Amino acid sequence: MSTPTQLAPSLEDEVHPATAAFYRRALQLLVDAQVPFLVGGAFAHACFTGIRRSTKDLDLFIKREDYERVTALARAEGWTTEIPYPHWLGKIYCGEDFIDLIYNSGNGVTPVDDKWFRDNAQADILGVPVMLANMEDGLLSKAFIMERERYDGADIAHLIQANAENIDWKGLLERFGPNWRVLLAHLTLFGFIYPGERHRVPRWLMETLMGRLSAELKEGAPEDRHICAGTLLSREQYLHDVERLGYVDGRLTPASTMTPEDVAVWTEAIPARQEASAEDLPAQDAAGIAIDAAAASAVGVSPAQVRPAAR
Predict the structure, then answer these.
(1) DSSP letter at 92?
(2) Cα(210)–Cα(216) distance, rounded to whole angstroms?
(3) In degrees, to the nearest 5, what angle opens at C-alpha 39 toward C-alphas 65 and 186?
(4) φ, ψ dihedrals at 125, nearest 5°
(5) pLDDT tens-digit readout, 224-244
(6) Which of 12, 83, 102, 263 is the most buried (most CB within 10 A)?
(7) Per-residue pLDDT tens for 144-171?
(8) Are residue 56 and residue 88 in the same domain, yes or no?
(9) Residues 204 and 248 in one domain
(10) Domain total of the chain
């Protein structure tokens, strides 16, 4: 990936001075301790697109193996830490301000690994020289965020519009792997959003993706494995499919690293679910999902690895 020719300023004006001081100290602490980390979120998006917006937190991408080391450094500073979602996210708190420590995605599809730490662009964030999460990894992570209350498609379109000639398209295609349809969907939308800039997405890439789609169509209807992969895009909007219609949750297939316990915690955290009374919830297992053992076996998931279907 090529480093952008011009990165956004420090973003000091976007956060309160006390919050900026917390972020600055945390960044310098990790730099001094030589802990590998990457800055993402609104900070990185501003660097790659020039779009500046206020942010309620600081997103740092780390490898899971470094989590305990990072939190130990934080606690030594008098900050508090928690790991509300063990499958992907931990937090550091300084009063009401916080930093997200991200080592996977909410759907368990994109764990942070060594591939994230290659040819990263550098930037000055709040006076501290840091490395940014590559735009390809940011794009990959954002591509699956399609909730009712949050959809990151515009961020993806802006990343492409600002950096099409600098994107490692081959590497991006490889990173999407079997989820290439999600990439195709976003690239198709890019052509709709910027009709005069469709040519900036490499022709070979679109032909490759369309070729795969064409090959699938020629193969005819696949064997029905009764999977709903919609849960990889939204933790809430496809619960009907897995709770009521008996679909296997896509997060409980090899496509994701999530466990039934992870799904249970992540489902329980949905605001509407937290607000609803127990009487209002449908009869279901603790994870809020119904898993058919035979269907699970059909997708290569051991019945022992999933919760039994609600009866």
Answers:
(1) E
(2) 10
(3) 100
(4) -110, 115
(5) 679 999 999 999 999 999 999
(6) 263
(7) 999 999 999 999 999 999 999 999 999 9
(8) yes
(9) no
(10) 3
